Amino acid sequence: MERLAHLCELLREVNAGNWREVMDAFRRQTAFEGRELGDEWKLMLQKVGTVAREEAVLEALQDTGPGRDHRARNTLEGWIMTDAATAVAWVKAQPAEAQEILNGAVIYGLARVSPTEALDYALRLSNRSTRDWGIGEIVNGAVQEGGFRRGEEFLAAVVDRADVGDDIKQRLFQDLARKRLLMDRLKNSPMDSLQWLDPYLTGEHSPAAPGAVMQVVAGAARDDPAKVLQWLDSRAERLTAAQTVPGYTAALQAIYQRSPEEFTHWLDANPAHPARDPLVEAYTSELIAGGKSAEAAQWITSVHNPQIRQRIEAALTKANAQVR
To answer: Do 64 and 197 belong to one domain?
Structure first.
């Protein structure tokens, strides 16, 4: 805490006339103490960017020492978070090589002041790795700067855009869902995440990624799997096929942990449910692993999916061969 307080005091003293001297003193101090202080250096460079703007970014780019790109990006982040329009326009006017170095910083900075602009910028990038990293950073930046509500506002602004693909919307939703799960876990209220998910279950073009549905349902099912199963049943018509299997799988796996009898009863009572065959495969795998091959074999005839049936048969054949 004392070190952080000292840094905050130092940052308040940085201005357009002394930033080089302050950085040099900070560099010598950290070297003398043998500390790397990555987070503190990031804050220092971002502060320099707010006061020295393009001058500091250019100086970093012209440096030939180690950490040049890191220094340039962190400095640009500070400038963008102070004057995004001017900073982004300046980056766009730079040579392609410099833009490649700085594009990640543009997205990082914009995510904290204008997430939708950050997404637009990322989608225009030709470098796939930077674009993919950037899209993953946007929700984090929006929530970090403006709280979870800011993340929800950003997602709402993107969901109805025809120029943004469903895959991008689902990825952004997945990132936001992780934040929501963490919040509700810390509050010890996982059922709240389930209620948060509810309005996003909108059919074919739902932004709720299957993986996110599974994670949210699994979190709630640890508390009350039967209630979660009822919740899924009441929304069955709103769930897409891609959401149904992971959602029911998560709920029924939790039921199995509490009552294997209740789990198998559900399998018997729902022979045509889209989640049934994947669940039978998971169940028979556990039976085989426990040496109950004969019991696992009894389920094969009830499996409708030929690929799943073949996998179960192959697992049984392998297990029986090992016994011999």
So the answer is: no
